[in-house]
Automatic annotation (TrEMBL):
Pfam families for this protein: p450
InterPro entries listed in its UniProt record: Cyt_P450 (IPR001128), Cyt_P450_CS (IPR017972), Cyt_P450_E_grp-I (IPR002401), Cyt_P450_sf (IPR036396), Cytochrome_P450_monoxygenase (IPR050121)
Alphabetical keyword list: Heme, Iron, Metal-binding, Monooxygenase, Oxidoreductase
Cofactor(s) in the UniProt record: heme
Binding site for heme: 394
GO terms for MF: heme binding; iron ion binding; monooxygenase activity; oxidoreductase activity, acting on paired donors, with incorporation or reduction of molecular oxygen
Stated name of the protein: Cytochrome P450
Length: 447
C-alpha cells in the first residue's frame, strides 16, 4: 500500500501559500501523510517528506542517487565549491581532509577561545541598556569562527563583516525559492549588493591566506593551516580558490546558524521562567563547586558540567532548527520503502515541521528542555535531526553544540536577557537559516 498522498489544494494555491508562509505551509502538510505529493508537473514531481524512515532513506541509504540541486547552485554563487555545495566525489574528498579540524582535542582547544570571546562580550554589556541581540550574537560567533578556524582577529571589522554575511544570506534565501533565478552577473540591485558583500568577505579571507603563507607556524592548529598543508589527489597543494571556498563555507554556515540559535535560546528562556530558573540553579551549583575547589573549571570542563544548558540548546534546535528545510533531487527513478518515485523527483524535508510532531514529542510547541534529559535514544533516528544526517550531515555539529552551550552558560552566569516591551511575539523568518524576523532588542539584567 502506498504511503504517498496527494495534497488536496491546487498547485497554484500551494505555490502562493509557500511563497507567503513556507513554514506554515510545511507544518500544515505534516499531518497529511508520510509523503505528500504537491501534484506538480510530471517532468519534475515534488514531494514533502514527513516520516523519519523516509528521511533516513533520502539522507543515508539513497544519498548516492541524490544531489542538492537548486539550493547548492544558488549557494555556490557565494561560497563556491566548498563542502556545503560540492557533489559526491568532491564532497567525499573535501570531508576527508576537513574532518581533523573537528577532532575532539581540537574542539577542546576551541572551547577556550569561545569562553574568551564571550567574556569579552559580557564585559562590554551594560546592565539595563538594550542591545540588538541578533547583531550581538552574529558578531560574537563571527569573532569565534575567525579565531578558531582562521587564527585571525576581526575585532575592528566585525560589524562590517557581519553585515556582509547578512546581505549574502538574505539575497541567497530570496533566490533559492524564487520561481525565476536571474543570472548573477545581471546588474540588479540585489546582485550588486550581494557581490559587494562577497568582496568584503573575500578581503578578510585572502588576507588571512596571505598571512598564513607568510607565517605558517602561527596557523598550524587552525583550519587555514590544515588547508595550506593539504594535497590533492595528484600530491599538489590545493589552490587558493579552493581554500577560499572552504573558508567562505565556514564563515556562512559556521557562525550565522549558531548566532540565530542563540537568539532563539534567549527568547525561549524568557518565555519559560521554569527553564530559566533551572539553568540558574545549574550555574550556581557550578560556581559553588568551583569556589570549594579553589579554581574555575577549564573551558572543556565547564562544558561538561553544563548539562541543563545543553538541553536548552537541544530544545532550541528542535523548535527552531537553523536548517529549516533540506532539499534533494534525483536523476534516476527511486524505490523507497515500497513506493516508486519518477526520475527528476524533488524532495523537501523540513526539520522545522517534523520536530513539531506532538505524537513524538508531546506538547511539541512548548519550550521544554527537560524533554532531552534522557537524550534522544527514545525517538526514531530522524524524528530529531537539527544537523541533518548521512555523509552530508553537518561536519561541525559537535563544535557548534559546544560553542552554543558555552556562550549560553558564560553569558547567563552574569546576565538575564528580557525583550524590550512593544516588539510583539517573535516570528520565525526562514532565510538560509531560521532567525527572528526583524531581530530582537533585549535588555541585559545583571544577576
Amino acid at each position: 500500500m502506498t504511503r504517498i498522498v496527494d495534497i488536496p489544494s491546487s498547485r497554484v494555491s500551494n505555490f502562493f501559500r509557500f511563497q507567503r508562509d513556507p513554514l506554515g505551509f510545511l507544518v500544515d502538510a505534516r499531518p497529511l501523510g508520510d509523503v505528500v505529493s504537491l501534484r506538480t508537473s510530471s517532468f519534475q514531481p515534488t514531494y514533502i517528506i514527513n516520516a523519519p524512515d523516509f528521511v533516513q532513506e533520502l539522507l543515508v541509504h539513497q544519498e548516492d542517487k541524490l544531489r542538492k540541486g537548486r539550493s547548492a547552485g544558488v549557494l555556490r554563487r557565494t561560497i563556491g565549491d566548498g563542502l556545503l555545495t560540492a557533489d559526491r566525489n568532491a564532497h567525499r574528498q573535501q570531508k576527508r581532509y576537513l574532518t581533523p579540524v573537528f577532532y575532539k582535542e581540537r574542539i577542546n582547544r576551541y572551547a577556550e577561545v569561545v569562553i574568551e570571546e564571550t567574556q569579552r562580550l559580557a564585559d562590554s554589556l551594560t546592565d539595563g541598556v538594550p542591545v540588538p541581540m541578533h547583531d550581538v550574537m552574529m558578531q560574537l560567533t563571527l569573532g569565534i569562527i575567525a579565531r578558531t578556524m582562521f587564527n585571525t582577529e576581526v575585532a575592528r571589522d566585525k560589524a562590517a563583516l557581519a553585515e556582509a554575511v547578512d546581505i549574502t544570506i538574505r539575497h541567497t534565501a530570496s533566490t533559492i525559492f524564487s520561481p525565476l533565478i536571474l543570472p548573477f552577473n545581471w546588474p540588479t540591485p540585489g546582485n550588486l549588493a550581494h557581490r559587494r558583500a562577497i568582496r568584503a568577505l573575500e578581503r578578510m579571507v585572502y588576507g588571512a591566506i596571505a598571512a598564513a603563507r607568510g607565517n605558517p607556524e602561527a596557523y598550524a592548529d587552525s583550519l587555514l593551516g590544515l588547508l595550506l598543508d593539504t594535497k590533492d589527489e595528484d600530491g599538489l597543494p590545493i589552490a587558493d580558490v579552493e581554500i577560499r571556498d572552504q573558508m567562505m563555507t565556514m564563515l556562512l554556515a559556521g557562525h550565522e546558524t549558531t548566532a540565530n540559535a542563540l537568539v532563539w535560546a534567549w527568547h525561549g528562556l524568557e518565555r519559560s521562567p521554569g527553564a530559566a530558573a533551572k539553568l540558574r540553579l545549574e550555574l550556581d551549583a557550578i560556581r559553588l563547586r568551583g569556589q570549594a575547589d579553589g579554581e574555575r573549571p577549564s573551558a572543556s570542563g565547564f562544558y561538561r558540567e553544563l548539562t541543563y544548558a545543553k538541553q536548552v540548546i537541544q530544545e532550541t534546535l528542535r523548535l527552531y532548527p537553523p536548517a529549516w528545510a533540506i532539499l534533494r533531487e534525483s536523476e534516476p527513478g527511486l524505490e523507497m520503502l515500497g513506493d516508486r518515485f519518477p526520475p527528476r523527483s524533488s524532495f523537501l524535508i523540513s526539520p522545522y515541521a517534523i520536530h513539531r510532531n506532538s505524537d513524538v514529542f508531546g506538547d511539541a510547541e512548548a519550550f521544554r528542555p527537560d524533554r532531552f534529559e534522557d537524550g534522544v535514544s527514545g525517538w526514531a533516528r530522524f524524528a530529531y535531526f537539527p544537523f541533518g544526517g548521512g555523509s552530508r550531515g553537518c561536519i561541525g555539529s559537535q563544535f557548534a553544540l559546544m560553542e552554543a552551550v558555552l556562550i549560553l552558560g558564560t553569558l547567563a552566569e552574569r546576565f538575564d536577557f528580557v525583550s524590550v516591551p512593544g516588539q510583539g511575539d517573535a516570528v520565525p523568518e526562514p532565510l538560509v537559516s531560521l532567525r527572528i524576523k526583524g531581530g530582537r532588542m533585549m535588555i541585559p539584567r545583571r544577576v
